[in-house]
Amino acid sequence: MKATAMTGKAKPRAARRGGRPRLESPKTHISLRLDAAIVATVKASGKGYTSRVEQVLREAIAAGVFASQETR
């Protein structure tokens, strides 16, 4: 809790407002090392490239590309 400038008292979290509403299922931040040529190609595809990468991964998962060795 942060202290307010006027009173010096902490303001309860529930009273704070503003910002973006919380998502029902927020995304997870990860770090991933990729070949520089792949990154350059993806970024060159323009604004919104992260959404397109996510869609390609979803399609690969649906096609079974990432299925475990036992289910292949």
Summary keywords:
72 residues, mainly alpha, 32% helix, elongated
Model description:
InterPro entries: BrnA_antitoxin (IPR025528). Pfam families: BrnA_antitoxin. This protein has 2 helices and no strands. It has 72 residues and is mainly alpha-helical. It has a domain of 47 residues. The longest helix has 14 residues. The radius of gyration is 21 Å and the shape is elongated. The relative contact order is 0.06.
Q: Tell me the helix content.
A: 25-40%
Structural class: mainly alpha
List segments where confidence is low: pLDDT < 50 over at least 5 consecutive residues.
none
* Largest sheet: number of strands, sense, barrel closure: none
**SSE string:** HH
Rg of Cα set = 21 Å
- Count of helical segments? 2
Overall strand count: 0
Please give the alpha-carbon distance between the first and last residues: 51 Å
* Average pLDDT: 84
Tertiary shape = elongated
Report the portion of residues in β strands: under 5%
Task: Give a brief outline of the structure.
The protein is built from two helices and no strands.
Helix and strand arrangement:
Layout: H1 36-44, H2 49-62
